[in-house]
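Appendix B, example 12.
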Amino acid sequence: MTALYWQTIGEGERDLVLLHGWGLNAEVWGCTLERLTPHFRLHLVDLPGYGRSQGFGGMSLAQMAEIVLAAAPPQAWWLGWSLGGLVAGQIALTQPQRVRGLITVASSPYFAAQDDWPGIRPEVLSGFQHQLSQDFQRTVERFLALQTLGTASARQDARLLKSVVLNQPMPSVEVLNGGLEMLRTTDLRLPMAELTLPLLRIYGYLDGVVPRKVAGLLDVSWPHSSSVVMAKAAHAPFISHPDEFAEIIRTFVTEGGIPR
């Protein structure tokens, strides 16, 4: 049986869908909920095959976006972290009339590094894929540790991420491999340049997964969008700096701007 886990909470009038990253689930947003629920009706989703959304196999980005969109409100703001940013971007490209605005967090339209593009070295992603079949849990833990490196609260943040994974059903190797394949091969740089809806990109200055140089490159090639680089954050800014993060989201969605 396949069923998508979807929880709706909050007192605000605006719908905001939160999409988590690779290997995780909707519990990752725990630090931000009390800060966001006064302003939004939050939709917490476990992506297909992750956490409580069991019974799904490996799938393409388009398939994952279609499944998530089918459960979503008619119109919403979408916030995608890391891999979730690709899913949210795909939804905005295929059904822009369903998207009031888009926020990507520590995400990139193309995660793999190329000569002229900063990102994760393709051999690192391939290595994770290879290691998954040999030592599933350790591979996931290594990827989570990579996401918090450099922050003042790195150890504590990594422990929190690990508990989020371990407290819910683990994704299968097939699902995790499918997610890594999305990170390795998806390239939305040109398609997303055509989007005209409100678009905010949030980055961590210390992020070792999505280098901050991506922010500057997209400032040029996506001039319709805005970016914020959080000075002391890494790949999970909503965990290390929840107050600052929530204020950025609130200001962008409700006032159409960015805190200065």
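The domain at 6-255 is CATH 3.40.50.1820 (Rossmann fold). The beta strands are 6-9, 14-19, 40-45, 76-81, 99-105, 199-204, 226-230.
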